[in-house]
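Onboarding guide, step 5: your first structure request.
Type a short instruction followed by the sequence, for example:

Predict the 3D structure of this protein.
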Amino acid sequence: MACLINGTTLTYQNEDRPQEIDITTGSLDHPESFVPNKDVFIKEKLSWVASVSAKH
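The system replies with structure tokens like these:
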């Protein structure tokens, strides 16, 4: 799904998880309200991204 005004991607689905719809956090009006509380797809993260578990 994309924004009708500027085309920004708002959601996406992954073929490996067809039962889930992901919402892009950066597309929210106040993304800082949604602080990560768990790591997902940790094997796919970029090397410079700190894991949530490392911050606790």
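Each response can be followed by summary notes, for example: The first strand starts at residue 11 and ends at 14.
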